[in-house]
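Structure ticket #2291
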Amino acid sequence: SMAYARTNADLSMADALRERGFDPDAPVMRRVAALVAQLRGFPRHLSQHVGGFVISEHPLHTLVPVENAAMAERTIIQWDKDDLQSMRLLKVDCLALGMLTCLRKCFDLVHRHAGKRFELATVPQDDEPTYAMIRAADTIGVFQIESRAQMSMLPRLRPAAFYDLVVQVAIVRPGPIQGGMVHPYLRRRQGREAVDYPQSASERAAGLDDSRVKVVLERTLGVPIFQEQVMKLVELVAGFTPGQADELRRAMAAWKRKGGLEPFRERIRDGMLANGYEESYFERIFSQIKGFGDYGFPESHASSFALLAYASSWLKCHYPAAFVCALLNSLPMGFYAPAQLIRDARRHGVRVLPVDATSSEWNCTLEALDDRKTDVGDFSRDACASSSANAPPPKSLPHDPPSPAAGTRAHALRLGFSRIAGFSEASATRLVEARRQHAFRDVADLIHRADLNAGERARLADADALRSLSGHRHQARWDSAGVDRTIAVLEGAAVNEESVQLAAPSLHKDVMSDYASQGFTLRRHPLSFARAALDQRRMQRARDVLGCRHGRRVRCAGLVTVRQRPGTAKGVTFVTLEDETGILNIIVWAALAEDQRRVLIDSTLLGVEGELQSSDGVQHVIAHRLVNLDALLPEIGSQSRDFH
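Resolution: structure written out below.
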């Protein structure tokens, strides 16, 4: 049977190589395949904890091997974290969370533009509009509850209070899912399953109404979700001492590597049976303990994460412009690319202004708007043209948003030079400093005073950041290309040049150039240009698919923004598609992913034929067939985040 398995694996690799244009029978490819097979299972790289600190009484280099890190004035220990634990060296992990930076920047923006000072401790609690937004899974960009899995759980769990968020953060983890905790908890929360707290033999004999289990599990409806609950539970039902319970906690994190839970199995079973608990309850508890693995959340950890999730959600709900500004200035972090963050902000009513050499800073900023004045860089008319004349109006938010917070209605998000690919912060600093001295007269004045070289001026022109001075990117490219540094001898000499006026690029070219230079556009969604061809293929818009009934066969297409294949999903790939009307979540089973691997991995514009599933407010499409439609938009490069 092993030989048969190896033969199948070899055939699978051969097919994959042929699919990519290689000859699997060539001697070189045979050697490469053999070497790859040997490398499988090895660590991909040596990683360094971003916030792990080792503390000792004596200088560390006298105890463990130490080497210089890549970062200046940093050192790292050459041991694995588990070796440190074996040697009983004190290790403290400080999570370097980008959201903390984002929140600080957002609080500063709110204070500067709305005159209100907030901190984590003073963010208003129990805000119903915020929880309505969370329940509707309108959480793009917020902390921890923005992923596809979290968004699928939010309409089912329906958080209405802070502790609900604590459970939400912890429950969408591989550990609880493997342990069978998610569905029992949801069924109990929704009233579809009775909440039970099994009693011991002595409790039943005494005719007691309550159980000791209830003391530990009441807040989570009888389902253990947190590490602290598991530790306390084995103390009560299996007679463990606190020290033994802590040994179990340590073993839970190592059981996959070292089989560390098996010695506890009999101890837990014997203790529970001795206390008169049913064998079936022991099996349920032990499977849930194993489910924690490396992913069991301590309740204190989940509470801290829930606080950040709530604070970021509150800011997104009440100060959306400030929130997306801080978020863009804190990248890279989170789950979404700038294109999705900006598009979501506009859906929430945030006016987004493009990068402009006469207005932008290096970072994104909030800019006061005068409604009586039209901003030359405002692409709202182009954006509004994204749907065909016969298309229904854009879909509204899935909840009723609150009125804009005081002091923020008249502010828009101005994108910064950091959004332009390849444009350096040093160049932006020179430009901003020159502009502060006095406004630029024209493109030549900007280039001379900011001391921009040919590459820097080309990047500004290609990103349409010179629109205020030249009118459009073709003219800006021409104007900037003709500017040379003035030779001292000729300075002040009259130059007789005829003004050349170039035709403006088409809207289609503008959109494609936006994607090439910045990875997003404030104009029409690129899929609108392929809509006629998609209609011929009977590809429905996302908005229309989500309006179908459960079980309906659908055909849809969109730009791939995310591909995910979690380790606990048994080979299932989750794909997020985006078109001009919304977002669709696609589920690709392992068999289909294997059969159409190249289409799944390579496609930027992906077509899907499948079946819509809708339950508890969660909708996704089960893919039956995938189609690569890149030929309809050949200019768009891949912008997806794959397998993060």
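Closing remark: Residues 2-39 form one domain.
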